[in-house]
Amino acid sequence: MRVMRPFGAREAESGLVSSRRILQGVQQVQAACDTCGAQLIPNAAYCERCGTRTRRARSMVRLAIRVELLFFLLFVGLVVAFIWIYSSQP
Ligand SMILES: [Zn+2]
User: Fold this and answer.
1) Residue 90 pLDDT
2) What would you report as the CA-atom Rg of the chain, rounded to the nearest whole angstrom?
3) How far is the CA of 54 from the centre of ligand 1 (A)?
4) Domain residue spans of the chain
């Protein structure tokens, strides 16, 4: 049986690596995979060898999650506002 590594640990590790890179001022296109070191196709979202998401793809996913969360909160706020308006009417 294979023991799965917790998702959070890996994300935290990559977060540390990327923040260190930003501090160093390295803002170039990622050329090699962080996990296996294989060469990446320019603007690739995944490593062809091991399937690891590239830094660019990870940041895009983070942005997408943030936008989605914003829309979700907007929707919840709208529903709550409507419920409040309707319930406050006589
Ligand atoms: Zn790889």
Assistant:
1) 78
2) 20
3) 9
4) 29-88
CA 88–ligand 1 middle distance (angstroms): 57
CA of 90 to the centre of ligand 1 (A): 63
H, E, C per residue of 18-47: HHHHHHHCCCCCCCECCCCCCECCCCCCEC
- Reported as a single tens digit per residue, the pLDDT across 58-74 is 999 999 999 999 999 99
Termini Cα distance of the chain: 63
| Residue 26, pLDDT score | 44
The answer on pLDDT for 30 being more than 50 is yes
In this prediction, residue 29 has a pLDDT band, given cuts at 50, 70 and 90, of confident
